[in-house]
Design goal:
- The structure is a homodimer of 670-residue chains.
- Among the domains of chain A are: 182 residues, Immunoglobulins (Immunoglobulin-like, Sandwich), CATH 2.60.40; 104 residues, Immunoglobulin-like (Sandwich), CATH 2.60.40.
- In chain A, helix 8 links the parallel strand 12 and strand 13.
- The first copy, chain A, is an alpha/beta fold and 670 residues long.
- The radius of gyration of chain A is 31 Å and the shape is globular.
- An eight-stranded parallel β-sheet of chain A has the order 20-19-18-13-12-11-22-21. In chain A, strands 28-27-30-25-24-23-26-29 form an eight-stranded antiparallel β-sheet. In chain A, strands 2, 4, 5, 8, 9 and 10 form a six-stranded mixed β-sheet that branches.
- At the A-B interface, strand 1, helix 1, helix 2, helix 10 and helix 11 of A face strand 1, helix 1, helix 2, helix 10 and helix 11 of B.
């Protein structure tokens, strides 16, 4: 016989295998994301050689906790197992899977098979007693006593076989014994996996973007933070819970852009808020024309009273007048002619902006300073940051900065404003951004919308990328909005607010249906607030404010809309009609939304609902209650007719009520 | 300003990211598989922040080589990059991806953009000269000189801008300079990935299974290895290149099964070859009734002369009479009554088989002994092993044993006979088995066949699981073969041999269309060779031997059939017609096979070929030449009519010839 080889695996008796866990992002390199109070469902392939039963446990703990907690995993079929746990604390949780060959369960299964076949059982009962004895030896005093008593009955030849087999089936004792399976024969999946737990607003939020300098009550006046505060009730009434302000820092004077991005400006032109820094200060200062830090604190406090959080813009770039340029020239790229390199994407030039040179020797000091900017505003009470163009700064910076912030303030939310290639956007989400802007503004047809939103809902992407859907931004006035009129604005609002648990609008341009572009074929607003003051007639009778109020109210009343997990598309026989549903996991709340994507014509057709996905019985009536118009429809089966006239209402948002048995029962739901 | 934090990443200036490489199995835990002379195409997502160009290299080396070789990677679009290398040596190769921000390429791209926009270029030319100087400082003497000369021209203000921009576009100098990019700013993907390179027969093989004891020339005689040798020309004529023999070891006497698996036997019954071991020896011995080791050597040598390799059966189990039972009782499970546990899957019992107890304390010695069995037969010249029921032995055993064998003999091929749950079968393939039995025998409808084969062709599965398709085995006489008559045998042969680069039949039962089952509804052969001697009238006029010869000849002549990489299914408007193509990567060899899956009736219908996939121009004629009947069809476009009468021929195997311009040109192909 050969001697054992030196290259043997550490314990060749570990028979169980754990494969393909989920969620698992880039082999465990990045955490999945959940919000407080959600359940994390974990799956894995678990199996062993041969025919024995296996058992599997989900282990989990908050990063700061020393001990693992356990949840059982159950087989889903085809060797896939699932378990879950509630994440009830902010921060990073760790989890993994433990599995082993379950000798006790295998033994009992075989015992019953033998009994069924009328085979002798004495030897098998003795074997069971041995297995239980082995568990007792690993158990504490009390459990060991109960297990030894059980083993004695199993082994007792003076009892009838029937009585002993009945004892073998004692469920509670079996469970007790299984808790003491040999720990040396358990396998634990490696590496540890992680889930980053954020607060609910990371998952469900309604954003409103507004330029404070255009918030003045009277036309021609320069708006201040105080004027902005005066608009808070207007924003709160519409139902928004995040108010995002473009940068409020001092604006550079050198190379300042004029109206409509003109290369020159005069003294009255306010300049772009993203050209940050002047002699009045930089990223930790407030533009004196907007107000003081005290004004900002007051605005923050008043917003909080109204249920609104302020989101601050983080744009890591400088105007030529930023104090950093003088104090830290080493953070900027010097050109061969001695000048500092301004931003450009040749042939386009942005001479009012100096980017940081992240390749500089002093990158460590630069990173530290940038982190201190975020930390400064956290110190002032800000808890949400909208990050401008994160894709033009190093990935490693964001991963480090976000982790550093979260270690002290896990409630801080980051939104990535990266409109770039998909893999770059997804990478930023992996690095820690809570939410991400998307291509939504440019997805208009049914195939585009259903395809894109379905992609975003596909794991592993859906485990780390949280879309925030914006029909417009100060940079994006889509062709659809330019030419679709009021129905286009309504349709895009309904889409954003019901497809996305998080969405936002740039107002008052949105509710006032601002739709004139600066250039034909372009997406820039004419007379954009980015370069000049505007005065908005918010009280205009055709404003969409009331409609927005209704939509946000529906979002608040319906948990189905507060998560993207339950999104599902349904077929229609008319390409202009997009139909989708959202439902909570318990199916208590289910909404079906149908949008006419054609802003110019009535469109009608047959809906083909996936009844099984909606938890509906094809044999029973159900009620579809339009939360926008108040209309109620009594439907049965998957095929139902819809007609949507954009001049009246381009969408149905239907609440589905189950268990309508007869037309008489229907009355109870009115 | 804040001081740099202690938690900064090692080098925050590494801007490039490498994600999602392929092939990559279980995050790099297992190697992909290729065969000698194939190209390994490696892909990955490679990108950086911002707008700069990135560059990417594929690094690879044979495990035994010290230095990396490099191959360029090119962008495929959407940030996906691809490179490849030929694997020209058996064993394990390692590979990874290196990437960096390509400053030189970015600079030149921007320079040309500026030039196009008529912007000043002087400063940019100076910057280019600086970048080239930096490369020169990292280069060897000769290259440094050329680069410095180039930098001088770029920086030379006395030259015209046009001349300097022309110099900037010198492709050879740019490539030279790019080779000296700062190594400190390169990222290398981790962990290292691996590909296991086997010989061609691991990918392309034609197996014939035969019981030597039924090889006697005369009825009633017990066949020997010498009789088996006499059948080699018959096997070679049919075109098989692997002859697989069920175990040839001594067979136990205790509990020996009689004909048709009867629990009792008499002296003349030979017993199951899988009940290994008697007083005559165990796994390293040859059944004296079959012959001697010298006979085996002679058989092996003669087979080699005919281009046939012997595949030996490895069944790690013992009869009660095996010497191991006496010499190593510690390797078997002792029951509570002192008896040794025989194999069972309650309520089924196999008292003639003792399984090893892989959970025993002496598992290390057991593994060493089992490895020595394989090594013993390798010592005798065997290079292919068909492993019986690997899924009832520990996974870790196979990974260790196969790696150990391959370290010394990388040409050894292992076929896994695991008919069990899919994830278990796939795990065995990951662990190192070269080929695997499949569910093919039970996939009969078009949807079943196309669905299953497509699953097997989907990465990552296709990177490590090589199917070996068997229409029958001594354990599997499918219902389709029991009741489909001669057309069923022909159809299943064509399917196995043209869907699978590796396939096998159990003969002569197959070519003689043996189709009677032992039990109604069962899949065991009546009077199975597993339990009794058989005599086969190989010369019977209705034998399929000639048809099999033709099929194997087509396989030899067509590289398209020697790999599974090019398999693609095509639509037909008749569910009974399965159509698929196989083509080489260079599209030089393309075959379209159409099989009538209904063995009882003629079926006809319209084929809808995917012309783009076949590399065919829809505007031009092409010839479809049936390699079975010799018929030639002149086709154009995707829709073509086919009719297959199973009584005549249930399949077309069409060679596609391109570039047929006119009916007259067609003649040239005759």
């Amino acid at each position: 016989m050969n001697a054992p080889a030196a290259d043997l695996p550490l314990d060749g008796r570990l028979r169980v295998v754990i494969e393909n866990p989920s969620p698992c992002i880039d082999a465990g390199r990045f955490p999945a994301k959940r919000t407080l109070g959600e359940q994390l469902l974990v799956q894995a392939d678990v199996f062993a050689d041969g025919h024995d039963a296996v058992a599997s446990l989900l282990l989990y703990r908050h990063e700061s906790a020393a001990d693992w907690q356990c949840a059982p995993m159950s087989p889903l079929g085809n060797d896939r197992w699932q378990g879950g746990f509630l994440v009830q604390r902010l921060g990073r949780w760790l989890y993994t899977i433990e599995a082993w060959v379950d000798e006790l369960l295998s033994w009992r299964r075989q015992l019953l098979a033998r009994q069924g076949a009328g085979q002798p059982l004495a030897v098998e009962l003795l074997r069971g007693a041995q297995l239980v004895e082995a568990c007792a030896a690993r158990a504490g005093h009390e459990a060991a006593g109960r297990l030894r008593d059980w083993a004695r009955v199993l082994a007792d030849a003076s009892l009838g076989a029937e009585q002993r087999v009945a004892a073998a089936q004692e469920q509670a004792l079996l469970q007790l014994a299984r808790g003491y399976a040999d720990p040396a024969l358990r396998r634990r999946f490696e590496p540890l996996l992680a889930v980053q737990v954020e607060r609910e607003r990371a998952r469900y939020s309604s954003w409103y973007e507004m330029f404070p300098r255009s918030a003045a009550a009277a036309a021609g006046q320069r708006g201040t933070l105080a004027d902005c505060e005066a608009q808070l009730p207007y924003v709160a009434r519409m139902g928004f819970d995040v108010l995002y302000l473009p940068p409020i820092h001092p604006i550079g004077r050198s190379e300042r852009r004029g109206p409509n991005n003109r290369p020159s400006s005069d003294a009255a032109d306010p300049g772009s808020p993203w050209a940050i820094g002047s002699s009045a200060g930089g990223h930790k200062s407030i533009d004196p024309q907007l107000g003081t830090l005290a004004d900002f604190q007051h605005l923050l406090a008043r917003a909080g009273e109204l249920g609104i959080e302020l989101a601050m813009d983080i744009a890591f770039q400088c105007s030529p007048d930023h104090p950093y340029v003088r104090e830290h020239p080493e953070w900027f790229l010097k050109r061969a002619d001695g000048s500092i390199q301004y931003a450009e994407n040749p042939p386009k030039k942005y001479p009012d902006i100096y980017p940081f040179d992240f390749g500089c020797e002093a990158w460590r000091e630069l990173w530290a300073e940038l982190a201190s900017i975020v930390e400064y505003w956290i110190g002032q009470g800000v808890r949400i940051f909208r990050v401008d163009n994160p894709h033009t700064k190093p990935f490693a910076l964001w991963e480090w900065l976000i982790a550093r912030v979260r270690a002290r303030a896990p409630e801080v939310i980051f939104l990535a404003e990266a409109f770039t290639r998909p893999k770059v956007m997804y990478r930023l989400a992996k690095l820690g951004f809570s939410q991400s802007y998307t291509y939504f503004a440019w997805r208009n047809t049914r195939a585009e919308l259903a395809g894109y939103l379905s992609e975003l809902r596909t794991p592993p992407l859906s485990d780390f990328f949280r879309p925030n859907l914006w029909p417009n931004t100060p940079d994006i006035l889509s062709e659809y909005l330019q030419f679709g009129g009021r129905p286009a604005f309504i349709a895009r609002l309904v889409l954003a607010a019901t497809l996305g648990a998080s969405y936002g609008i740039y107002g008052p341009a949105f509710e006032l249906m601002e739709h004139e572009a600066r250039d034909p074929g372009g997406e820039e607003y004419r007379d954009s607030e980015k370069y000049q003051l505007r005065h908005w007639p918010r009280e205009r009778p055709d404003s969409l404010a009331d409609f927005i109020t209704r939509i946000n109210q529906i979002r608040r009343e319906h948990p189905a809309l507060q998560s993207d997990a339950g999104l599902r598309f349904h077929a229609t026989d008319n390409d202009a009609l997009l139909a989708y549903s959202k439902g909570t996991a318990d199916a208590d709340d289910t909404l079906v939304t149908i949008v006419n994507l054609d802003p110019h014509h009535e469109q009608s057709g047959w809906l083909q609902l996936d009844l099984a996905a909606l938890g509906l019985d094809s044999a029973r009536l159900f009620q579809a209650h339009d939360l926008l118009s108040g209309a109620r429809f009594l439907w049965q089966g998957p095929r139902n007719y819809v007609a949507l006239d954009p001049a009246v209402a381009p969408a149905h948002v239907l609440r589905i009520r189950r268990h309508v048995r007869t037309e008489r029962d229907f009355d109870y739901f009115l």
